Each structure stands twice: as structure tokens, then as C-alpha cells.
Amino acid sequence: MTDNLTDRLEKNSMGSTPQTNPDERRQYLGSLRERVLVRLSVAQFKNKELVETLVDHIPSYQNYQVLINNKINTPNASLIIKSCSQNNIRFSLISDQSAQTVDEATGVLVVSKDAINESIIDITQKYNKKTDSNSNYKLEKISVWSKIKKLFKGE
User: Whole-angstrom Cα distance, residue 71 to residue 63?
Assistant: First the structure.
């Protein structure tokens, strides 16, 4: 225990403050998993439809910040930046060591200042459910209408 304390004191005196969960921070553009609301991987960030889905939801992120991996060369970043600016949503372009370019790395995050512990953060899982429920509603509405038509026709 004293060795551990001595090591921490030595590192602190050299000007390096210890960081909590450094591997997790590298994975989430300097943030922590517990603060993430929505995540797009680098591969998803290059997909215009998924970026447009995110842009559609940006007005609801008033108490959040959008972190954008600035090492990815895609015109989709300008769509997100423009929407954040129009809706007064804070955003940051991340170019440090946490910004990776492999497809599985993080491309865009919507994060909170505090822990929110969202169980589902992947954009395809988070917003696909809402799309599915809306399409089911439309199918039910059509099927009810077709039943009424059949009633009037005597079928």
C-alpha cells in the first residue's frame, strides 16, 4: 500500500495526474461509457443515412455535448456540426490519441456531463426500435382500415 502511495505521489510531483479508466477514455473519445447517450462507430459515421438519423435527433440533445472524431475524412461531419450550431448544442472535434480511424472505433458520441448509464448506446439499436414501432403502428392502422372496408363490402 505504501509503495502504491509512493508511486502516486512521485507521478503527481512530476506533473502527471493519474486518469481514471484510460482504456475506456481512449475508446470513448476522452469520455466515459457511463456518460454516453448515443454512439456511432467510424463505419457508421461514414453512412449518410445513420448520420441523418442522428441529425434528426440533435434538437433533443439540449443537455448533452456531441463529440466528433476529427481524424475521419467524411462530409457527414459538416452535417452534424451544422445541426449542432443551429440547435445551440455544444460539440467538440476530437483529434487526440483517443480518435482512432479503424471501423470499430468511435466516430461520434453524444455525451452527458454526468453519468447516465444508458444500456443501449449504438445508434442502430437505439433508434431502430422507434422506427419499428412506428411502422408497426402504420401496419396495424392499415389492417384495421382494410377490415372496415371488408365489413362494408360484406366479406
Answer: 25
- For the entire predicted model, the pTM comes to 0.71
| Cα 94 to Cα 108: distance, rounded to the nearest angstrom | 10
d(CA 121, CA 109): 9
When pLDDT is averaged across residues 14-39 and rounded to a whole number, the result is 82
Q: What distance lies between CA 17 and its chain's CA centroid?
A: 28
pLDDT classification of 154: cutoffs 50, 70, 90: low
- Lookup: cell for 144: 384495421
Per-residue pLDDT of 105-135, as tens digits, reads: 999 999 999 999 999 999 999 997 444 444 3
Q: Residue ranges per domain, the chain? A: 21-116
Radius of gyration over every alpha carbon of the chain, rounded to an integer in angstroms: 22
Greater model confidence, 90 or 24: 90
Which class is domain 21-116?
A: alpha beta
Sheet holding 90-94, edge to edge: 36-41, 106-111, 65-69, 90-94
CB 74 within 8 A of CB 103: no
Look at residue 68 and give its three-state secondary structure. Answer: strand
40, 126 Cβ separation under 8 angstroms: no
